[in-house]
Amino acid sequence: MMYKILAINPGSTSTKIALYEETKELFKKNIEHSNEEIAKYKNITAQYEMRYEAIMNFLKEMNFDVKELSAVVGRGGLLPPVKSGAYRVNDSMVDRLANRPLVEHASNLGAIISNEIAKSLNIPAFIYDSVAVDELEDIARITGMADVKRDSFSHALNMRAVAIKVAKKLDKAYDDCNLIVAHLGGGISISVHNKGKMVDIVSDDEGPFSPERAGRIACKRLLQMCYSTDKNVMKKKMRGEGGLVSNLGTNSALEVEKKIENGDENAKLVYEAMAYQIAKGIGELATVVDGEVDAVIITGGIAYSKMMTGWIKKRVQFIAPVEIVPGENELEALAFGALRVLKGEEKAHEYDLG
């Protein structure tokens, strides 16, 4: 039997979908939602019917009979901390995401829409590697303030997908490897995978700056700014107007590289500083596994940049061989995760956090 899986990844102004037959992509679509359309809804949950109908209409246009589906898998939203891998979507999960989400986020719709499609077909709906995956060890949670513990929010979906892919390339099981994965996108996060678990991370607010995010900032200076600046202004400085935007006025790595090619020395300094900080984050996480690292993996959209990956590789290749896996590949990661469950290679968790 050949399994057909529909993968759904809701974003702020789009819903990306793809249909896979086993590991073969049959088609995919980025369904755009205009700002005017999004503005009609009071919150994220209220958008679900509009997005559901857009998906079903597209499938109809493609003359695809949904009765051929074996499963539907959606992007995992902002739930209370969960384990890595697949979760079967149930009423408790849908209720949490629809009515009591930790944060309003488009990814919360992944489970809700998947469940609606699957329910009418009597097939399973899953989420896979939610944004809320948390496998931090106890020692990694401690900070210098007893009432502040570290959380685990990262690009878990793509990170684990490329880690599994590279482990296979190394002819090893993912559960037998120690891997460090740096995801380079609008935000940058880095994770260390110890024998199949993502045991520590450098999140986008405690590590390297990125195209739009400020990253780690000296606490004393940040504290001074917080008491002299409006809260919303500070939020924008940290997320949206930080990083390359703050230093160079653009969030486009391509634009920055053009500036460098045209002889802009300041652009080169800032861009290389970003690579320098990413390399520091990778080095920091190498200590978690006592330096025993099978591979360092660089992924995400900016991993297409030979300039950026070259700078990082030069600084970290002494730790382990460096693998470049550009792009985010989130739909593929969702579909392949669900496929492993359907084939019995992985077991789906049951969500019972309420």
Automatic annotation (TrEMBL):
The record's annotation in PROSITE patterns points to: ACETATE_KINASE_1, ACETATE_KINASE_2
Instruction: Tell me the organism.
Output: Clostridium aciditolerans
User: Among the entry's GO cellular component annotations, what is one?
Assistant: cytoplasm
Q: Which InterPro entries match?
A: Aliphatic_acid_kin_short-chain, Aliphatic_acid_kinase_CS, ATPase_NBD, Butyrate_kin
- Reactions mediated catalytically: butanoate + ATP = butanoyl phosphate + ADP
* Recorded family membership: Belongs to the acetokinase family.
Any one Pfam family here would be Acetate_kinase
Return one GO MF term.
Answer: acetate kinase activity
Where does the secretion signal sit in this chain?
A: none
What are its GO biological-process terms?
acetate metabolic process
Q: Does the keyword Metal-binding apply?
A: no
Gene3D superfamilies, per the entry: 3.30.420.40
Report the coiled-coil segments: 17-44
Q: Where in the cell is it found?
A: Cytoplasm
**Where does the source fall among the domains of life?**
Bacteria
This entry's Enzyme Commission designation comes to 2.7.2.7
Q: Provide the organism lineage as a comma list.
A: Bacteria, Bacillati, Bacillota, Clostridia, Eubacteriales
Q: Does the keyword Cell wall biogenesis/degradation apply?
A: no
Q: What is this protein called?
A: Probable butyrate kinase
Q: What are the record keywords, sorted? A: ATP-binding, Coiled coil, Cytoplasm, Kinase, Nucleotide-binding, Transferase
